[in-house]
Design a protein that fits this description.
350 residues, 434 Repressor (Amino-terminal Domain), elongated
Amino acid sequence: MIDWSQPRPLAKVTEDAGFTMSDVAFVSGLELSTVSRLWDEPDWLDRVSGKSLQSLASSVPGVAEYFASHSVLARRNDLIAQLEAEGLSANRPALMLSSHSDVPHQYLFNALEAALSIMRGDERRTCSYLARFWGLQQNRALELLYAAEGDHALLRNPDQLFSASIEMAPRLTRKNYSFHSILAQATFAHHLGIATGELDGEFTPSITDRQSAFMVRSGIMGLLINSSDIDLAHRYERMVKDIPVLAIIEEWSFPTYTRDSRPNADFSLPGSILLRRTAEEVLREVDHYTDAYLYYLCTTYLPLALERDPTFGLRAAQLERALEIRAQVCEDATVRGACIGLAGQLKETT
């Protein structure tokens, strides 16, 4: 089996096609002297121009596959080695290109880069990386990074990452107000809540501004996903009703997370919005998340969403049916009542 992470000369990459140097030059339209300079060089990818690489990839079998596989695998192997030097052990099977994860490998490797910055205590780079993970697909890569167990977990010893994240979080609080630091703090709170089922007091401050509101909201979402704490869902419902800045964050979070709206530093939404992607994600969560999280959806987020978009991304009728079905298996009577109540409201308006 070929190890595509290792550099291979152009001659080896084109070997299966049976092409000689002159064949490659002819079919690619490149000068023979250009191909000659690359032919026996293992690091030819570092030397070739973008235009020449496009010509080779489009005309010579194996070049495009080698370029894609080598680039990804070389980065993976380099990250694994750097993480091991920082005390983190990567779960190599989860990082195989043949793994069944539905998350693009580029996102997985970006998550490992973030972990490396956290372990090194590099606050600036950590904020810059984590800010790019506010999004549905990207967030699933972080879920795998912070996963405590499972075949697709990216780390075999994530406890060390948890500790490093907890240690870094207070330093981000002391940084000047920035959108990136707000997103980074919220990311820590959310994924540590999911992974550990508890949050240090650092992640549950009094809500005084958007930064503290977003961190509290993210941490509570993580806890609700981790375990079915109905009391916490009740408390959060009251908090959103009583604290205007938290209501703003709550309404903003789903549409920007799913990219129905672009994330922005002023936490605002357009006056008119169709929650098409939000609806798809919420319908998935209705089917799969805990009763406490379902109660949160029915009593806290969905009423705000339906005020903003009464059609709920043109899927209000589907949401009604999903709530009716989920209500039949809810163990908690309060949650069941919340499902049935919201489904009834939807029936009246659709």
